[in-house]
Write a structure and sequence with these properties.
By secondary structure, the chain is mainly alpha-helical. The protein has a single domain (2-207), classed as MetI-like (MetI-like fold), CATH 1.10.3720. The chain is built from ten helices and two strands, in the order αααααααααββα. The longest helix has 32 residues, at 176-207. The protein is globular and about 65 Å long.
């Protein structure tokens, strides 16, 4: 069953990270680089989203998902992970965009590059390490989630790895050997991802600590 739990976690985590990455990169660019009326108000809304406790809207979300038949569906986790991951990720990426010299984008536009071209060809490559850093933070949050998965998923075949670990019991009490083995297996993806991206994460953090 551990393989099933790991597979469900991967199915829930990878699309969530993809949606968070695409939406947050473009939103942070629009909020920090482009100048348009109301952008400060939109940023305040995202900041309010960071401060909103998940427990406040957990029951309303459950009611909504129940009415649209998304309970015991990994899509409910993907939607919720994406929605709650966006405010913090946009805020963090906006901070990294502040370190980017505006002259680079202005020079690209003067040379005939469109705004989308400047975004894709200049800012995204420069933000590569920063993007990996914030995606790693979100990966840790989502992979280790227990509350949302425990609330929206009750089918044992759809449990993620964190809620699946709760089912490692026997008729004689806690099965410590299998539980510890499953915990080690659940830790391997996070450890492997961090070790693989360690240097890029350090570069991304350093890039966000200096302006100019």
């Amino acid at each position: 069953m551990v393989g099933t739990y790991l597979r469900n976690s991967v199915i829930a985590v990878l699309p969530s990270l993809l949606f968070i990455a695409i939406l947050s990169i473009t939103a942070a660019f629009a909020l920090e680089i482009l100048h348009w009326r109301g952008r400060n108000g939109i940023m305040l809304l995202f900041l309010a989203g960071i401060m909103m406790p998940l427990q406040i809207i957990l029951l309303p979300l459950f009611s909504i998902y129940l009415h649209v038949n998304l309970i015991n569906n990994l899509l409910s986790l993907i939607i919720t992970y994406t929605a709650f991951g966006l405010p913090l990720t946009i805020f963090m990426l906006a901070g990294f965009y502040k370190t980017m010299p505006p002259a680079l984008i202005e020079a690209a536009v003067i040379d005939g590059c469109s705004i989308f071209g400047a975004f894709w060809r200049i800012t995204v490559p420069m933000m590569k390490n920063a993007i990996l850093t914030v995606m790693l933070v979100q990966f840790f949050f989502i992979w280790n989630d227990l509350l949302l998965s425990l609330t929206f998923i009750s089918n044992n075949n759809l449990r993620t790895v964190q809620t699946g670990l709760l089912s490692f019991t026997t008729g004689y009490g806690q099965a410590w050997g299998p539980t510890f083995a499953a915990v080690c297996m659940a830790m391997l993806p996070t450890l492997g991802v961090y070790l693989f991206l360690n240097q890029r994460v350090i570069k991304g953090i350093a890039a966000g600590s200096v302006k100019g």
